[in-house]
Fold this sequence. Notes:
Order of helices and strands: HHEEHEHEEHHE
Radius of gyration: 23 Å
Helix content: 40-55%
Low-confidence stretches: 49-53
Amino acid sequence: MKRFHFALVLAALLVLGASCKPKQSAYKQVYEAAKEREMQQTASQPTTVVKDAGSLPPVEVSVRKEKVEAVYPTDAAGLRKFNVVIASLSVKLNAESLKSRMENEGHTVILAQNEQGMYRVIVASYDDKDQAASKRDELHRTYSAKGDTEYLRRTYGVPFNDLWILERQY
Protein backbone atom coordinates (compact mmCIF):
# COMPACT_ATOMS: atom_id res chain seq x y z
CA MET A 1 0.00 0.00 0.00
CA LYS A 2 2.89 2.37 0.82
CA ARG A 3 4.36 1.73 -2.62
CA PHE A 4 1.08 2.63 -4.24
CA HIS A 5 0.86 5.92 -2.28
CA PHE A 6 4.50 6.68 -3.05
CA ALA A 7 3.93 6.06 -6.77
CA LEU A 8 0.77 8.18 -6.70
CA VAL A 9 2.57 11.10 -5.03
CA LEU A 10 5.49 10.79 -7.44
CA ALA A 11 3.12 10.78 -10.43
CA ALA A 12 1.30 13.84 -9.06
CA LEU A 13 4.61 15.69 -8.62
CA LEU A 14 5.64 14.83 -12.16
CA VAL A 15 2.35 16.12 -13.54
CA LEU A 16 2.60 19.32 -11.50
CA GLY A 17 6.23 19.85 -12.48
CA ALA A 18 5.52 19.37 -16.17
CA SER A 19 2.51 21.66 -16.15
CA CYS A 20 4.38 24.53 -14.46
CA LYS A 21 7.03 24.80 -17.14
CA PRO A 22 6.49 27.72 -19.50
CA LYS A 23 5.86 26.54 -23.00
CA GLN A 24 7.81 27.86 -25.95
CA SER A 25 4.58 28.65 -27.76
CA ALA A 26 3.64 31.09 -24.99
CA TYR A 27 6.89 33.00 -25.50
CA LYS A 28 6.38 32.95 -29.24
CA GLN A 29 2.86 34.36 -28.93
CA VAL A 30 4.07 37.22 -26.71
CA TYR A 31 6.96 37.96 -29.07
CA GLU A 32 4.71 37.98 -32.13
CA ALA A 33 2.19 40.24 -30.38
CA ALA A 34 4.93 42.69 -29.42
CA LYS A 35 6.36 42.64 -32.94
CA GLU A 36 2.89 43.27 -34.38
CA ARG A 37 2.37 46.26 -32.04
CA GLU A 38 5.73 47.69 -33.06
CA MET A 39 4.90 47.28 -36.75
CA GLN A 40 1.54 49.00 -36.26
CA GLN A 41 3.25 51.80 -34.37
CA THR A 42 5.77 52.22 -37.18
CA ALA A 43 3.04 52.16 -39.81
CA SER A 44 1.07 54.84 -37.98
CA GLN A 45 4.05 57.21 -37.97
CA PRO A 46 3.99 59.79 -40.75
CA THR A 47 6.29 59.26 -43.70
CA THR A 48 7.83 62.26 -45.38
CA VAL A 49 9.61 62.65 -48.69
CA VAL A 50 13.09 64.15 -48.68
CA LYS A 51 15.00 65.02 -51.82
CA ASP A 52 18.50 63.57 -52.00
CA ALA A 53 21.34 66.04 -52.49
CA GLY A 54 22.25 64.45 -55.84
CA SER A 55 20.19 64.17 -58.97
CA LEU A 56 18.35 61.10 -57.73
CA PRO A 57 14.56 61.12 -57.48
CA PRO A 58 12.92 61.76 -54.07
CA VAL A 59 13.49 59.01 -51.54
CA GLU A 60 10.91 57.90 -48.98
CA VAL A 61 12.24 58.60 -45.51
CA SER A 62 10.50 57.04 -42.58
CA VAL A 63 10.66 59.33 -39.57
CA ARG A 64 9.54 58.14 -36.15
CA LYS A 65 8.84 60.62 -33.41
CA GLU A 66 9.79 59.65 -29.84
CA LYS A 67 10.77 61.19 -26.58
CA VAL A 68 14.31 59.93 -25.87
CA GLU A 69 17.05 60.84 -23.43
CA ALA A 70 20.76 60.09 -23.62
CA VAL A 71 21.78 57.13 -21.46
CA TYR A 72 25.13 58.71 -20.58
CA PRO A 73 25.61 62.38 -19.67
CA THR A 74 28.59 62.56 -22.05
CA ASP A 75 26.26 61.70 -24.96
CA ALA A 76 23.62 64.29 -24.07
CA ALA A 77 25.38 67.17 -25.83
CA GLY A 78 25.54 65.22 -29.11
CA LEU A 79 21.87 64.24 -29.16
CA ARG A 80 20.05 66.46 -31.68
CA LYS A 81 16.57 66.55 -33.21
CA PHE A 82 17.05 64.06 -36.10
CA ASN A 83 18.95 60.85 -35.36
CA VAL A 84 20.01 57.91 -37.53
CA VAL A 85 19.20 54.72 -35.61
CA ILE A 86 20.91 51.45 -36.53
CA ALA A 87 19.37 49.29 -33.82
CA SER A 88 16.70 49.27 -31.17
CA LEU A 89 17.49 46.91 -28.31
CA SER A 90 15.79 46.09 -25.05
CA VAL A 91 18.95 44.95 -23.23
CA LYS A 92 21.42 47.67 -22.25
CA LEU A 93 24.42 45.33 -22.39
CA ASN A 94 23.63 44.44 -26.01
CA ALA A 95 23.29 48.13 -26.92
CA GLU A 96 26.61 48.92 -25.24
CA SER A 97 28.28 46.06 -27.08
CA LEU A 98 27.04 47.31 -30.45
CA LYS A 99 28.09 50.84 -29.49
CA SER A 100 31.65 49.72 -28.78
CA ARG A 101 31.88 47.75 -32.06
CA MET A 102 30.70 50.78 -34.03
CA GLU A 103 33.07 53.11 -32.15
CA ASN A 104 35.94 50.77 -33.05
CA GLU A 105 35.05 51.46 -36.69
CA GLY A 106 35.29 55.21 -36.12
CA HIS A 107 31.64 56.15 -35.58
CA THR A 108 30.52 58.45 -32.81
CA VAL A 109 27.69 56.50 -31.23
CA ILE A 110 25.03 57.75 -28.83
CA LEU A 111 22.86 55.50 -26.70
CA ALA A 112 19.42 56.88 -26.02
CA GLN A 113 16.48 55.38 -24.19
CA ASN A 114 12.83 56.00 -24.93
CA GLU A 115 9.94 56.11 -22.48
CA GLN A 116 9.21 52.40 -23.00
CA GLY A 117 12.76 51.44 -21.98
CA MET A 118 14.10 50.58 -25.45
CA TYR A 119 17.70 51.53 -26.17
CA ARG A 120 18.24 53.31 -29.48
CA VAL A 121 21.74 52.97 -30.93
CA ILE A 122 22.32 56.24 -32.80
CA VAL A 123 25.25 56.67 -35.20
CA ALA A 124 24.56 60.21 -36.35
CA SER A 125 22.58 63.13 -34.98
CA TYR A 126 21.61 66.33 -36.81
CA ASP A 127 19.35 69.34 -36.49
CA ASP A 128 18.34 68.95 -40.14
CA LYS A 129 16.23 66.06 -41.52
CA ASP A 130 17.93 66.17 -44.93
CA GLN A 131 21.35 65.64 -43.37
CA ALA A 132 20.05 62.71 -41.35
CA ALA A 133 18.51 61.15 -44.47
CA SER A 134 21.76 61.56 -46.41
CA LYS A 135 23.77 59.95 -43.61
CA ARG A 136 21.28 57.08 -43.36
CA ASP A 137 21.59 56.42 -47.10
CA GLU A 138 25.39 56.67 -46.94
CA LEU A 139 25.56 54.13 -44.10
CA HIS A 140 23.19 51.81 -45.92
CA ARG A 141 25.35 51.92 -49.05
CA THR A 142 28.58 51.47 -47.07
CA TYR A 143 27.47 48.47 -45.07
CA SER A 144 25.52 46.89 -47.92
CA ALA A 145 28.73 46.92 -49.96
CA LYS A 146 30.52 44.96 -47.21
CA GLY A 147 28.58 41.83 -47.93
CA ASP A 148 25.40 39.96 -47.49
CA THR A 149 22.86 40.64 -44.76
CA GLU A 150 23.69 37.49 -42.79
CA TYR A 151 27.35 38.49 -42.50
CA LEU A 152 26.36 41.89 -41.17
CA ARG A 153 23.86 40.34 -38.78
CA ARG A 154 26.53 37.98 -37.39
CA THR A 155 29.23 40.67 -37.18
CA TYR A 156 27.23 43.57 -35.78
CA GLY A 157 23.96 42.02 -34.68
CA VAL A 158 21.99 44.17 -37.15
CA PRO A 159 21.61 43.80 -40.94
CA PHE A 160 22.01 47.55 -41.77
CA ASN A 161 19.11 47.41 -44.19
CA ASP A 162 16.66 48.78 -41.66
CA LEU A 163 18.26 52.09 -40.69
CA TRP A 164 15.69 54.67 -39.69
CA ILE A 165 15.43 58.26 -38.56
CA LEU A 166 14.23 59.20 -35.11
CA GLU A 167 12.83 62.68 -34.61
CA ARG A 168 13.45 63.56 -31.00
CA GLN A 169 10.48 64.99 -29.12
CA TYR A 170 11.18 67.22 -26.14
